Every structure is written in structure tokens, then in C-alpha cells.
Automatic annotation (TrEMBL):
Pfam families: Flavokinase. GO terms for biological process: FMN biosynthetic process; riboflavin biosynthetic process. It comes from the Eukaryota. This is Riboflavin kinase.
């Protein structure tokens, strides 16, 4: 299911999310606009993925990503949220986020408690870090997608 769409390259503006308190949990997720989400293959499975991400012309970092159902649209549309495995000094709403999704971890799940949710995400992050050090994933960190001529970011 998921694998045949990967690697998946995507670039778009970071918008305000649902204010579900991801940041308060220590796992902020940069949300893509509805328009960017609509450009994803409609049959890409929901779940947790990993890959590489870069904000503006910044450094390329490891990331974990969730493709989930969008509560604003009664779960008929998807949402795409990227947690970059890096500590940023400031928020970056309105900036251009570039990502390449290289692997799939697991389907979406419901958790009995907040603690269970947080520990699952911590495990996802550790799994992503390990996988991304493997040559087949590491090579995409250096992809030209992240290093456009003149450092300019061009949308689509
Ligand atoms: P929202 O509901 O608006 O998406 P979040 O609590 O998920 O709010 O926080 C997401 C915002 O946090 C991002 O849009 C970004 O500006 C900021 N942010 C800071 N550090 C990170 C990070 N490591 N990964 C993702 N977003 C981050
Ligand atoms: Mg978010």
C-alpha cells in the first residue's frame, strides 16, 4: 500500500493546525495546507511515516510524519503533519516546508491514554532515526530537491 508511493516529495506552506496541543506534548507538528494535502495521492494509506525535512533554505533534518483524518472535515479529508526531529528557536508558520517521505512505520491507532500515545510517538521517533541512518534512506537527505540552484525555493 504505502510503499509504492515512496519516496514522496512535497513542498508547501506551514499553516495553523487544529491546536490539539501537540506542542504542549513536546511533539509539535507542522501542518500542510488543505491544498497541499489534496495534491497527495488519494490512495496513500493513513499512518505514521518518516523521512527528511527542511524549513526554507535551512538544514535537512530527520522527521516523522502522520497522514491522518482531518477532524475539521468530519474525517473525510486527510491532514498531513510533520514533526521535525530538531529543536527550533522559533516557530515557522508561513514558511515553506520541503519533505521527502522515505518509509512507513505503522497504521493510525487509538490509544487508551495520553501516556500511551506519547510513548508510541517516542518509539516512532526512535524507529525513524534508526531507519534514516540506513544508506537507502540516508541518500535522500542529499537529494537535489533540498538544494535548488541559488538556494531558491520554487513552489511546484
Ligand atoms: P498547530 O496545531 O498549529 O499545528 P502544533 O502544536 O502542532 O500547532 O505546533 C506546530 C508548530 O510548531 C509548527 O507549525 C512550527 O511553526 C512549530 N515547530 C517548532 N518546532 C517544530 C518541530 N521540531 N517540528 C514541527 N513543528 C515545529
Ligand atoms: Mg500541528
Amino acid at each position: 500500500g504505502a510503499m509504492r508511493h515512496l519516496p514522496y516529495f512535497c513542498r508547501g506552506e506551514v499553516v495553523k493546525g487544529f491546536g490539539r496541543g501537540s506542542k504542549e506534548l513536546g511533539i509539535p507538528t507542522a501542518n500542510f495546507s488543505e491544498q497541499v494535502v489534496e495534491s497527495f495521492p488519494s490512495d496513500i494509506p493513513t499512518g505514521i511515516y518518516y523521512g527528511w525535512a527542511c524549513v526554507g533554505n535551512g538544514d535537512v533534518h530527520k522527521m516523522v510524519l502522520s497522514i491522518g483524518w482531518n477532524p475539521f472535515y468530519k474525517n473525510i479529508k486527510k491532514s498531513v503533519e510533520t514533526h521535525i526531529i530538531h529543536t527550533f528557536k522559533e516557530d515557522f508558520y508561513g514558511e515553506i516546508l520541503s519533505i521527502v517521505i522515505t518509509g512507513y512505520i505503522r497504521p493510525e491507532k487509538n490509544f487508551d491514554s495520553l501516556d500511551a500515545l506519547i510513548s508510541a510517538i517516542q518509539e516512532d521517533i526512535e524507529e525513524a532515526k534508526r531507519q534514516l541512518d540506513l544508506p537507502e534512506h540516508l541518500k535522500l537527505k542529499e537529494d537535489n530537491f533540498f538544494h535548488l540552484p541559488g538556494g531558491k525555493i520554487v513552489n511546484n
